[in-house]
């Protein structure tokens, strides 16, 4: 659901709205299905207009981080932000979830609510990470 439109930016309603739609679906799918599957937040393109948005969400998703770039067309500056200098990924302990105040609201259509997702990382003494979209 991230690149299915004919608009070159990927969304007839606005590039950022469609990318937000993707994150909302991933976050709420993790909430509903995370108890019996390990949610996968899908791949992203590292040169897309919303690539940093996608990279941040994958960083705390708890799932794999992979890109769907064309061969030789990678944004290594962005991708290097997702790993340690030795290439190790600081994977979170669980799957990312929406915060309680993000439940039962509509961040895609109400024009005022931000999606907030969180996860834990045991490498940093069980640090809680919250990202606002």
UniProtKB/TrEMBL annotation:
Q: Which GO MF terms does the UniProt record name?
A: galactinol-sucrose galactosyltransferase activity
Keyword field contains Transmembrane helix: no
Q: Name one Pfam family in it.
A: Raffinose_syn
Q: Which keywords does this Swiss-Prot/TrEMBL entry list?
A: Carbohydrate metabolism, Glycosyltransferase, Transferase
Q: Could you confirm whether the keyword Glycosyltransferase appears in this record?
A: yes
What SUPFAM superfamilies does the annotation carry? Answer: (Trans)glycosidases (SSF51445)
- PANTHER family, alphabetized: GALACTINOL--SUCROSE GALACTOSYLTRANSFERASE, PTHR31268
Q: Which family does it belong to?
A: Belongs to the glycosyl hydrolases 36 family.
Its recorded name reads: Galactinol-sucrose galactosyltransferase-like
Where does this protein come from, organism-wise? Trifolium medium
């Amino acid at each position: 659901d991230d690149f299915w439109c004919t608009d070159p930016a990927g969304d007839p309603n606005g590039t950022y709205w469609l990318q937000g739609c993707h994150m909302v679906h991933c976050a709420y799918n993790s909430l509903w299905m995370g108890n019996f599957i390990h949610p996968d937040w899908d791949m992203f393109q590292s040169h897309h207009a919303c690539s940093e948005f996608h990279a941040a969400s994958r960083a705390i998703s708890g799932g794999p981080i992979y890109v769907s770039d064309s061969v030789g067309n990678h944004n290594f500056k962005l991708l290097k932000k997702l790993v340690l200098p030795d290439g190790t990924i600081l994977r979170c302990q669980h799957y990312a979830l929406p915060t309680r105040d993000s439940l039962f609201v509509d961040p895609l259509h109400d024009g005022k609510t931000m999606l907030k997702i969180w996860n834990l990382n045991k490498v940093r003494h069980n640090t809680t990470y919250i990202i606002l979209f």
